[in-house]
Amino acid sequence: MTRLQDPTKVDGVAPEFIADPELLDAVSPSGDRGGIILGSGLQGEPLTVSALRSVPTRIVVVGGLYLARQVAMRAMAVGAWCIVATGRPAAWHVLQQAAGTQRDGQPSPLVQIRRLSPVELPRPSEDAPLLVVNDGGPTPQDLFPPRSPWQTTVYVLPYLHPQATAVANGADLVLMQRLPAGQADLAAQIWRLPQQMTRQLTTLKDDHVVALGRNLWRPLRLVTTSKEQALLGPVRRGD
Questions:
Q1: What is the pTM (predicted TM-score) of this model?
Q2: Which residues, 6 or more positions from 227, have their beta carbon under 8 angstroms from its beta carbon?
């Protein structure tokens, strides 16, 4: 049984698949048309995030590197090309491990790790969506803004910074892990959060995330498959 969303709406969370959450460890982390399973809801129901869509999409990840790498791996699992622009390439080599190698032993072209400088991007399509990861610190330059359908740019923010307000406000979806009190107060200013939501950001468990978007506030619990755990380690708040 599935609950479908209106395809003309631009929402942060894709259809919810009503299934036993224990099944998540036994199935590949895929979703429906750009929806990637990120975790389970408060009732244990698996939740998918609309990460790859027919409109240019911005996602901001606030928290540890673990979460950003898991989002990228889940996008790859549903067929996305992945380009990572970063100042710490060694931290992202795990994506190349996940993608495997070609028959000649060369790394898979589906994952490219680059420096933080503008480059020409491949043209994305419905059959070959593109995920660009901008791992440029708390005040990233907008080097790869999504300009075409089926391109999603993920901005990795290790913490919230006042100078990142424009990037944060421009996001279609924000994924936030636990924040210290000062960071939560800044989040409240950026997104006009009420006190109850602000307080909730400071009390999230290590494996909990809040998905924030237009008319969206959805706490969820991260779930990692056995294959992902072998590459990323256990679910955690930090890097």
A1: 0.85
A2: none
